């Protein structure tokens, strides 16, 4: 393809990707109730955010869920990633990848039926349990790719030089895959705090999270507060992703 | 008693027999080499001695005690891996200290022995560096120091020079020989490089298809290959189809299609009428315009079919008799003269009867 | 023996967790599609107890309902069309971008790829919401467009709450899924191939259609699969931007579970969606596999 046409269409594609997000951020500082013309700069939507009890409660919930779910998913996902790398188990890859491959809505509704069937009241617990389930696979993939990049003979060399299997893991394998585990944890945290679809079905009436709060504001009454909370959430995600990509460059592409 | 004894080791992966009934004895202080093409089972055998794999049947005895149930960390055997497997997150000194730490040796002694080990491999100033900051040759020396620092009974080396370039490889070969003499530890060395095996070893086991084809000193392996595979794998060799017509005590007469009768040494036990090949090393064949026939020599007249200029030597492919091609070497001792003969030149070749070995199929 | 114990200790916990929170829920959903709806939503009991004792209370009613009214199949077909249109526009938008990145200098590539990835790590809802602003009636785009149409005496049009808004936003959220596999493929091409083609007389368009594009087909197929399948189940985009005319099959599933509370029918729809997606993927994989093999 001619070079100039290529460059022009490439730049257009980047504009297409970023313009909408820039608009959201810009309007979060606009001193008008309408997302229309630019009136003037203000912090008032951010102030309103911090006085909005429902929003703060949702943010607290989101944080609690993301911390708990990412911790549990990191432990389970690391084990799964290690098992994927180390053992030839035929069904394990299918079991770990399937929740990532099928449309999210199906995971959401099946978990909803499940929680009702086992008589678990929908709320923080059901959301957290669901988040763990879909984060395990992401952590497992990141950890496995880190293991795949490690020289197989390193843990063997440790054993050869007198280390027990546990010592070989603790002193050699673990320090070498730690960046992958950390990146996996950050990804799990990001996925959990951002998740809308699965949370939507498993939250019930009891608990709200930031994405659910944003959704109800969009559906019922759009105020520039949505722009403000979106901007903050984007900043948080951006921060986590940039750190994760610094620690383990391949991890971010997995989503 | 042998230091290490392997008794009828068998290891297969599915239908593929990687090691198929191998037995051998390795003496204390030996530099022993497992030589063979890739897939011959030498690495599988090494991994079983180290403890990373277990034979399906057979015994591995160290000082007469069976090792098969002992995990790798409990065996007084260390390995130098092909990739060196230096821990990238530890410094050179920490790498070398690792086996000592695993043995719960005191800090002061560890420091002292690490320092000694670094001196031994001439890396005293590199202790604080990370493996990633070292050159290939230096990494190789760290891997050796790490494997030797806790004084194992046996050191296994898995193609340790394969990653180095040719110059460095020759230098490291000399260092390995000297190191082995110095520390007196038994080395088992795995390689597919026959020149390396010949240069380093006290004894060599040539392996193929999971079996030991020949186990001997390097010169025996080279001069008296026991079968066609060994003759072909080690160095270059003319292999000419032949049939025994007269089998004497020491000599034998062979009939070669298109060439006629040839005298060869009887390796023992060959009977009249058996078929096989005559194995003849190119450097043992004389080539000239006219060669005086000495007693016990075979001589044939032919013409140069083709030649390859190799720098130090020129290889001539000489056609003798009816369509029999024999390779002969001539060192290029005179400067500025790439070849003595050209294609088509009439020449004579000759070799002593004991230069050729008859190998029964 | 110890090796086996280690294997189960390590793989056991995650396997157990996913069995409980993924496999069992999936089976329960399959079972639910054969059950009766409860009187107040949810599900009726599996076993009925009456004078004859306990017996199974299962039915094919939900599937019968789906096939008895063409309205559901029409919604499914509409969803497929949205997904196809989205996939097509993703491909034509992503291809030049992927080519540009693959053709740029090595040290810039990672950054350019990261720039493609970053927006799709931002919250899904925010990305949809942004289009609500852009397409809203007071937005510069709407005002400008309607001003332009007004000059020709054409009635003003609304952009928001239309199928157009839905597909545009679907393209937006799915675009990175197309760029990444295309880039991963294009990056591996040997630049000497293009030099050779040029040397043999091909102009830049010929080089593209004869060399680059055929070699990139595996990446194209991967991108199509990654874009197409998730779109089938999306409900948030039409929910927010589509209005009444723009709904897709995902919206109907959501509605059956949360509003109509007919769980058996919702489950049946989910299963039909899954099977439909699997069929499409299977057929596509066969076709793609054949083409790729022929090219090799």
Structural class of chain B: alpha+beta
Tally of helical segments of chain A: 11
User: What is the number of E strands of chain A?
Assistant: 0
Shape of chain B: elongated
The level of helicity of chain B is: 10-25%
Number of structurally distinct domains of chain B: 2
Reconstruct the topology from this structure.
The complex is a heterotrimer of chains A (255), B (361) and C (296).
Chain A: H1 3-27, H2 44-51, H3 53-86, H4 91-101, H5 104-117, H6 124-148, H7 153-160, H8 165-194, H9 197-202, H10 210-220, H11 225-247
Chain B: E1 4-13, E2 16-26, E3 31-35, H1 42-50, E4 57-62, E5 65-66, E6 77-80, H2 92-102, H3 107-120, H4 136-148, E7 154-158, H5 166-183, E8 186-191, H6 194-200, E9 203-208, E10 211-216, H7 218-223, H8 228-233, E11 238-247, E12 251-256, E13 260-265, E14 275-280, E15 286-288, E16 297-309, E17 313-320, E18 324-331, E19 346-352, E20 356-360
Helix pairs in contact in B: 2-3, 2-4
Chain C: H1 2-32, E1 47-50, E2 53-56, H2 61-68, H3 70-103, H4 106-121, H5 124-135, H6 140-151, H7 163-186, H8 191-199, H9 204-215, H10 217-233, H11 236-242, H12 249-258, H13 263-295
Antiparallel strand pairs in C: 1-2
List keywords for this structure.
heterotrimer; A: 255 residues; mainly alpha; MetI-like fold; 2 domains; 11 helices; B: 361 residues; alpha+beta; Rossmann fold; OB fold (Dihydrolipoamide Acetyltransferase, E2P); five-stranded antiparallel β-sheet; 20 strands
Explain the overall architecture.
Chain A has helices at residues 3-27, 44-51, 53-86, 91-101, 104-117, 124-148, 153-160, 165-194, 197-202, 210-220, 225-247. With 255 residues, chain A is mainly alpha-helical. Chain A folds into 2 domains: 1-42, no CATH class; 49-253, MetI-like (MetI-like fold, Orthogonal Bundle), CATH 1.10.3720. Chain B folds into 2 domains: 4-231, Rossmann fold, CATH 3.40.50.300; 236-359, RNA polymerase II/Efflux pump adaptor protein, barrel-sandwich hybrid domain (OB fold (Dihydrolipoamide Acetyltransferase, E2P)), CATH 2.40.50.100. Chain B is built from 8 helices and 20 strands. In chain B, the strands form 4 sheets. A 6-stranded mixed sheet of chain B has the order 6-7-8-3-9-10, with helices on both faces. In chain B, strands 13-12-11-14-20 form a 5-stranded antiparallel sheet. In chain B, helix 2 (92-102) crosses helix 3 and helix 2 runs parallel beside helix 4. The two termini of chain B are 35 Å apart. By secondary structure, chain C is mainly α. The mean pLDDT of chain C is 81. In chain C, helix 5 packs parallel to helix 11 (236-242). The two termini of chain C are 45 Å apart. Chains in contact: A-B, A-C. The interface between A and B is medium-sized, with 18 and 23 residues.
């Amino acid at each position: 393809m001619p070079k100039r046409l290529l460059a022009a269409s490439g730049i257009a594609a980047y504009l297409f990707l970023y313009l909408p997000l820039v608009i959201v951020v810009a309007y979060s500082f606009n001193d008008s109730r309408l997302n229309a013309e630019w009136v003037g700069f203000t912090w008032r939507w951010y102030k309103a955010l911090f006085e909005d009890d429902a929003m703060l409660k949702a943010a607290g919930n989101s944080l609690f869920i993301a911390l708990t779910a990412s911790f549990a998913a990191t432990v389970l996902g690391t084990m799964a990633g290690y098992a994927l790398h180390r053992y030839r188990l035929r069904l394990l890859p299918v079991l770990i990848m399937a929740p990532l491959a099928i449309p999210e809505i199906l995971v959401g509704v099946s978990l909803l039926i499940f929680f009702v069937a086992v008589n678990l009241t929908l709320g923080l617990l059901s959301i957290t349990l669901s988040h763990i389930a879909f984060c395990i696979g992401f952590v497992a993939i990141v950890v496995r790719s880190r293991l795949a990049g490690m020289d197989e003979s390193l843990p063997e060399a440790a054993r050869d030089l007198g280390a027990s299997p546990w010592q070989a893991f603790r002193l050699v394998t673990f320090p070498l895959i730690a960046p992958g585990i950390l990146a996996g944890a950050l990804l799990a945290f990001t996925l959990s705090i951002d998740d809308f679809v699965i949370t939507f079905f498993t939250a019930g009436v009891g608990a709200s999270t930031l994405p659910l709060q944003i959704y109800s504001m969009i559906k019922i009454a759009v105020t520039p507060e949505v722009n403000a909370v979106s901007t903050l959430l984007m900043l948080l995600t951006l921060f986590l992703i940039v750190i994760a990509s610094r620690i383990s460059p391949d991890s971010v592409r997995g989503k | 008693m042998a230091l290490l004894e392997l008794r009828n080791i068998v290891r297969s992966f599915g239908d593929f027999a990687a090691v198929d009934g191998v037995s051998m004895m390795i003496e204390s202080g030996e530099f022993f080499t497992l030589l063979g093409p890739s897939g011959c089972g030498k690495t599988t055998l090494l991994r079983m001695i180290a403890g990373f794999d277990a034979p399906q049947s057979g015994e591995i005895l160290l000082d007469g005690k069976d090792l098969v149930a002992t995990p790798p960390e409990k065996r007084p055997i260390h390995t130098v891996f092909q990739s060196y497997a230096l821990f990238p997150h530890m410094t050179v000194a920490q790498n070398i200290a690792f086996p000592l730490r695993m043995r719960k040796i005191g800090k002061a002694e560890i420091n002292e022995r690490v320092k000694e080990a670094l001196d031994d491999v001439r890396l005293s100033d590199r202790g604080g560096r990370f493996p990633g900051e070292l050159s290939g040759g230096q990494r190789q020396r760290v891997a050796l120091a790490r494997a030797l620092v806790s004084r194992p009974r046996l050191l296994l080396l898995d193609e340790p020079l394969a990653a180095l370039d040719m110059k460095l490889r020759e230098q490291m070969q000399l260092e390995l020989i000297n190191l082995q003499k110095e520390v007196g530890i038994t080395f088992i060395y795995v390689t597919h490089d026959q020149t390396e095996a010949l240069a380093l070893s006290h004894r060599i086991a040539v392996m193929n298809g999971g079996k030991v084809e020949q186990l001997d000193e390097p010169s025996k392996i080279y001069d008296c290959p026991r079968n066609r595979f060994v003759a072909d794998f080690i160095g270059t060799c003319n292999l000419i189809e032949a049939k025994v017509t007269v089998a004497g005590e020491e000599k034998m007469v062979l009939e070669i299609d298109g060439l006629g009768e040839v005298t060869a040494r009887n390796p023992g036990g060959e009977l009249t009428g058996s078929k096989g090949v005559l194995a003849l090393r190119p450097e043992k064949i004389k080539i000239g315009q006219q060669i005086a026939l000495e007693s016990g020599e075979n001589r044939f007249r032919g013409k140069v079919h083709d030649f390859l200029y190799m720098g130090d030597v020129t290889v001539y492919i000489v056609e003798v008799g009816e369509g029999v091609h024999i390779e002969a070497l001539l060192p290029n001792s005179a400067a500025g003269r790439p070849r003595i003969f050209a294609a088509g030149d009439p020449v004579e070749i000759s070799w002593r009867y004991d230069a050729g070995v008859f190998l029964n199929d | 023996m110890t090796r086996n114990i280690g294997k189960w200790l390590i793989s056991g916990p995650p396997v157990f967790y996913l069995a409980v929170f993924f496999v069992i829920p999936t089976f329960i959903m399959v079972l639910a599609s054969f059950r009766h709806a409860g009187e107040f939503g949810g599900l009726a009991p599996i076993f009925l107890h009456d004078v004859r004792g306990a017996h199974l209370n299962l039915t094919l009613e939900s599937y019968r309902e789906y096939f008895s009214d063409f309205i559901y199949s029409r919604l499914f077909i509409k969803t497929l069309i949205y997904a196809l249109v989205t996939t097509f526009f993703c491909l034509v938008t992503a291809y030049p971008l992927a080519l540009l990145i693959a053709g740029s200098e090595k040290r810039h590539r990672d950054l350019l790829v990261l720039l493609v990835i970053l927006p799709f790590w931002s919250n899904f809802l925010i990305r949809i919401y942004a289009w609500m602003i852009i397409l809203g009636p007071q937005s510069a785009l709407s005002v400008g467009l309607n001003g332009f149409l007004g000059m020709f005496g054409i009635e003003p049009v609304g952009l928001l709450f239309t199928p157009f808004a839905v597909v545009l936003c679907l393209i937006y959220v799915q675009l990175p899924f197309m760029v990444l596999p295309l880039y991963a493929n294009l990056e591996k091409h040997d630049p000497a191939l293009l030099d050779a083609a040029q040397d043999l007389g091909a102009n830049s368009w010929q080089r593209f259609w004869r060399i680059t594009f055929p070699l990139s087909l595996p990446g194209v197929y991967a991108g199509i699969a990654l874009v197409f399948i998730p779109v089938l189940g999306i409900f948030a985009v039409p929910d927010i931007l589509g209005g009444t005319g723009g709904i897709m099959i995902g919206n109907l599933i959501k509605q059956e579970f949360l509003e109509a509370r007919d769980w058996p029918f919702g489950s049946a729809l989910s299963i039909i969606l899954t099977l439909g997606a699997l069929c499409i993927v299977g057929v596509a994989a066969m076709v793609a596999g054949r083409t790729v093999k022929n090219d090799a």
